[in-house]
Design brief:
There is one protein chain. By secondary structure, the chain is α+β, with helices and mostly antiparallel strands. It has two domains: about 120 residues, no CATH class; about 100 residues, Arc Repressor Mutant, subunit A, CATH 1.10.10.10. The chain has ten helices and nine strands. A hairpin with a 4-residue loop joins strand 4 and strand 5. It is globular, with a radius of gyration of 22 Å. The termini are far apart.
Length: about 280
C-alpha cells in the first residue's frame, strides 16, 4: 500500500471516528453481511479476475506472485478465501484488517464505513448477539446453528438443509458422507420452497458452506420429476472451517462494537472535562 493511500485511509478513519461520536457505532452485522466483499476488494485495490476470482493480496506466499488468481469470493456467505494461503474464510472486516495490516476490528469497521454507506447503531442501544468463550465442536446442523452460520443462510437454504439431512443415508458403514435422491418436486413437497431458482440457489449455497457437494449441472427454471443424487458432507473439514470463521466473525463484530463504544465514552468524558475547565476559568 502506498504512503498516499495509507494517509488517505488514516484520514478517512479519523473522519469516521468523528461521525461515530455523533451517530453511534457502525453496524458490524450489516458490514459483514450486506457490504459486498467484492466491492471491498476493489476499494482496497486488490486485483480481481472476473466476478468471483481474486489475486491474493499476499503475493509473496505464492509462486510467481499469484499470477493466476487463487482466491475466491464466496458469494452466499459474503466471504473471501485464498486456497493457497489456506487461511479461514474472511468477511469484510477481517479482510480489511488483513490487507491493511490493522490490529483492531473497530478500525476496520470505521474504514469500511468511510468507503461504503453503512448504518450506525445509537450508542445507547444494546448490541445483539453473544460471544462464546469456546466453540463446541459439532457436526451438521448443530454446527451451523451454534456458529451463527445458520442465520446467514437464505430462508430457502434453511428450509432445504434439514430435509436433505433427514432423508440422506450413509453411502457405506465406513463413510462419513450421506447420499439422498430427490427431485425438485420432492424438495418442494418437503421443504415448502416452490421456486426452482430458489432451490437451485439454496443447493449452491449449501455446497459453498461445505454441507454438501456441489449439485449437478441441471439448469434451473422449471420443476422436474427426475430425481437427482445429492451427497451431504455434514462432517467435512470445509464445513468446520466455515463455521469457525463465522463464529470468529461474530466475536469480532461484538468486540469491535464494544471497543468503539469505549472510545466514544472516553471522548465524551474528555469533552465534558474540557468544558468544566473552561467554566472554572
Amino acid at each position: 500500500m502506498s504512503a498516499e493511500q495509507e494517509d488517505g485511509d488514516s484520514g478517512a478513519i479519523g473522519a469516521q471516528r468523528t461521525k461515530a461520536s455523533v451517530r453511534g457505532v457502525p453496524d458490524m452485522k450489516y458490514i459483514n453481511r450486506k457490504v459486498p466483499i467484492g466491492e471491498v476488494a476493489r476499494a482496497l485495490d486488490v486485483r480481481l479476475e472476473g466476478a468471483t476470482m481474486v489475486h491474493c493480496w499476499h503475493p509473496e506466499r505464492h509462486q510467481q506472485g499469484d499470477r493466476t488468481a487463487s482466491a475466491s469470493i464466496l458469494t452466499s456467505s459474503n466471504k473471501i478465501k485464498c486456497f493457497v494461503c489456506n487461511f479461514r474464510p474472511k468477511g469484510p472486516i477481517d479482510f480489511v484488517m488483513d490487507v491493511l495490516e490493522m490490529n483492531s476490528p473497530a478500525d476496520a469497521a470505521l474504514w469500511i464505513a468511510a468507503h461504503f454507506p453503512v448504518p450506525f447503531i445509537p450508542t445507547r442501544k444494546h448490541l445483539t448477539g453473544s460471544a462464546r468463550r469456546r466453540e463446541r465442536v459439532q457436526n451438521g446442523l448443530a454446527l451451523i446453528i451454534r456458529s451463527g452460520l445458520w442465520a446467514q443462510l437464505s430462508p430457502a437454504a434453511q428450509a432445504i438443509a434439514p430435509v436433505l439431512l433427514e432423508m440422506a443415508e450413509k453411502e457405506n458403514s465406513a463413510s462419513e458422507r450421506l447420499t439422498v435422491q430427490l427431485s425438485y418436486v420432492g424438495i418442494t413437497r418437503m421443504s415448502g420452497i416452490s421456486s426452482p431458482n430458489a432451490i437451485h440457489r439454496a443447493l449452491l449455497a449449501l455446497s459453498e458452506v461445505g454441507l454438501m457437494l456441489p449439485p449437478d449441472g441441471r439448469t434451473p427454471g422449471k420443476l422436474v420429476k427426475e430425481t437427482a443424487r445429492y451427497t451431504m458432507t455434514p462432517y467435512s473439514q470445509e464445513l468446520l472451517e466455515m463455521a469457525n470463521a463465522t463464529a470468529q466473525q461474530v466475536r469480532d463484530e461484538i468486540a469491535a462494537g464494544v471497543e468503539l463504544r469505549a472510545r466514544l465514552r472516553k471522548e465524551r468524558v474528555r469533552v465534558f472535562a474540557g468544558k468544566g475547565l473552561k467554566e472554572q476559568q
